[in-house]
Design goal:
Radius of gyration: 18 Å
Low-confidence stretches: none
Number of helices: 7
Order of helices and strands: HHHEHEHEEHEEEEEHEE
Number of domains: 2
CATH architecture of the largest domain: 3-Layer(aba) Sandwich
Bound molecules: S-adenosylmethionine
């Protein structure tokens, strides 16, 4: 998308993120699974955002670090009463990871797909592997892409109120594994606000291949952080890789 960069998503969604996405996944189940994977060690979240997951994880007694490319998202995190409990820095999840070592690095809710090329995704996995302590784990949560899908473009309604309409406009190019879109947020008083997003998706098998290239071996695959079994009909997956 012309004009889109690593800060565009966070800067475009920071003011609505907690209202729109507080409940997109089960935070309690995620916190429990991540605490278990961390096994008492330090944790790094890639794309930590407003702290939807990092804050409850820190409240559970885990040492949590986070990076995010958007200062606007981290401002939201830091403005929360317990915001200081997460060690958060404005940094790119490929080039700017703190040194660690970490027992667990995780990336939730499709955030890994914010890296828009296969090369950037591969480089991120190398950077992660270099920050894990011996035997440390990397966990990724993402959707399972449809195979053999056709190119699509769609406009749908996210919400309608007397003084506000939010439309969702998106396109997908399965051959290039790319999708992008805008939430078009229209209010009488504020005019039009555009909230853009862009992703490059990967299949679980492609993730396994990139992870293996970085020295990370798949140990578990669930359909979610509730650790329910993954199967052919699963729409989402949580994949856990261990440093070899
Ligand atoms: C969908 S939000 C997820 C936030 C949080 N992890 C959660 O689950 O609610 C994706 C986050 O990734 C950040 N992000 C996107 N590209 C990034 C990059 N290259 N490096 C670091 N953070 C990035 C965005 O700014 C945004 O805060």
């Amino acid at each position: 998308m012309r004009g889109y960069d690593d800060r565009s998503y966070g800067d475009g969604f920071a003011d609505v993120y907690d209202d729109w996405y507080a409940d997109i996944t089960d935070v309690d189940a995620t916190t429990a699974a991540l605490s278990h994977l961390a096994a008492g060690g330090a944790v790094l979240e890639l794309g930590v955002g407003t702290g939807r997951l990092a804050l409850p994880l820190a409240a559970a007694g885990v040492e949590v670090h986070g990076v995010d490319s958007s200062a606007a998202m981290l401002d939201r995190l830091r403005s929360k009463p317990d915001g200081h409990t997460v060690h958060a820095t404005v940094a790119d999840m490929v080039e700017g990871l703190p040194p660690g070592p970490f027992s667990l690095v995780f990336v939730a809710y499709n955030t890994f797909f914010s890296l828009l090329t296969q090369a950037r995704q591969q480089a991120c996995l190398h950077a992660v592997a270099a920050r894990l302590r011996a035997g440390g784990v990397f966990a990724i949560e993402a959707f399972v892409p449809e195979v053999d899908a056709s190119p699509t473009s769609s406009v749908s309604v996210r919400s309608v109120a007397a003084d506000r309409v939010v439309l969702s406009v998106s396109t997908a190019d399965p051959e290039r594994q790319l999708a992008e879109g805008q939430y078009v947020d229209i209010t009488e008083t504020g005019g039009v606000r555009l909230r853009p997003w862009s992703i490059r998706w990967a299949t679980p098998a492609q993730l396994d291949e990139m992870a293996a290239e970085a020295g990370l071996r798949l140990t578990d695959r669930w359909s979610g952080f509730d650790r329910a079994p993954f199967g052919p009909d699963s729409a989402r997956h949580v994949s856990v890789y261990r440093q070899e």
